[in-house]
């Protein structure tokens, strides 16, 4: 079971799915600049760094960032902006 890395989100792969509630889970980008943006959006401790299999759920991305062809994919320029904790 993996949990969304955004602080206080609580969505996880055991209780959420696309078929059940329309939620998908996505790994952090490999590009260091984009990864830094995702890390900042998580609102975790300043020293926190995501593990290699860390996930973020689709609730934190606007619909325009998704490509739906054979399967749901998050576009390369996706930036998390929704339902993020306030500092």
Automatic annotation (TrEMBL):
Leader sequence residues: none
Gene3D superfamilies given in the database record: THAP domain
Keywords: DNA-binding, Metal-binding, Zinc, Zinc-finger
Keyword Transit peptide annotated: no
InterPro entries hit by this protein: THAP1/10 (IPR026516), THAP_Znf (IPR006612), THAP_Znf_sf (IPR038441)
Domain THAP-type: 1-83
Protein's name in the database: THAP-type domain-containing protein
Species in which this protein is naturally found: Loxostege sticticalis (Beet webworm moth)
Lineage: Eukaryota, Metazoa, Ecdysozoa, Arthropoda, Hexapoda
């Amino acid at each position: 079971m993996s949990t969304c890395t955004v602080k206080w989100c609580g969505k996880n792969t055991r209780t959420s799915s696309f078929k059940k509630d329309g939620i998908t889970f996505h790994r952090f980008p490999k590009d260091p600049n984009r990864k830094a943006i995702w890390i900042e959006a998580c609102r975790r401790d300043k020293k926190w760094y995501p593990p290699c299999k860390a996930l973020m759920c689709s609730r934190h991305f606007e619909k325009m960032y998704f490509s739906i062809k054979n399967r749901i994919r998050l576009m390369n320029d996706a930036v998390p902006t929704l339902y993020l904790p306030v500092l």
